[in-house]
Amino acid sequence: METGGATGARPLEKLQRAVILLGPPGAGKGTQAKELARKYSVPHLSTGDMLRDNIAKGTALGEQAKPVMARGELVPDSLVLKMVAKRIEEADCSHGFVFDGFPRTVAQAQYLGQLLREHGFRRPLVIHLVIGLGLLMKRLTGRRVCKTGGEIYNIFDRPPKVAGRCDADGGELLQRPDDSEEVIGQRLQAYEKQTSPLVAYYKRLGLLHEVDAAKSVDEVKQQVFDVVRGTK
């Protein structure tokens, strides 16, 4: 494992691989992906960001994806996988990267494994954020967002000082339409059907590491860092 370079007296740690975060909506994948990417100074990659970037830049792939997204349809695998392939060829990915929300299916995972081999990366490190359905529903249905400044609260575990009002600016706190119990139930069902088979797939390959996502953000972050350090 390469540890070359230094920041002051501290060796600069290198990731040198892809890290994949798996887990249902609300498990904290985005938060933990950002923390890990920041620690190792590698890109935090999400297919949503890639799609928006390609559309903004007017690339050939973006032009193909734009009308599909405008119709509210899912962008086909063929386009998403081409975007992923191009993205990991960029220089900032040379020491590794962190995926959030990709792959979503076993077919995507198989393609990604092939891509990583072709680019000389080791097998990916897969971290499964495990959390019970009851807590997940509380996290998601309890979320409230300030209409004015965008601050996020949770009526169950991070409530505002005054019900319905933001602590910072007194703005009204709203529940997003996709945070309703009905919509969340549908999202979790879709996740269970499509994405959870990845857990079994990566477990069979011996690449899966489970982390207790029911703990605090800092405790989960420490677990994730420990897994990464322990598998170098």
What would you say this structure looks like, in words?
The protein is globular, with a radius of gyration of 19 Å. The termini are close together. Helix 2 (47-57) crosses helix 4 and helix 4 runs parallel beside helix 5 (106-118). The chain is 44% helix and 16% strand. A 5-stranded parallel sheet has the order 4-5-3-6-10, sandwiched between helices. It has a 3-stranded antiparallel sheet with strand order 8-7-9. A two-stranded antiparallel sheet has the order 1-2. The protein has 232 residues and is of the alpha/beta class. Strand 7 and strand 8 form a beta hairpin.
Key attributes of the depicted protein:
single chain, alpha/beta, five-stranded parallel beta sheet, three-stranded antiparallel beta sheet, 10 strands
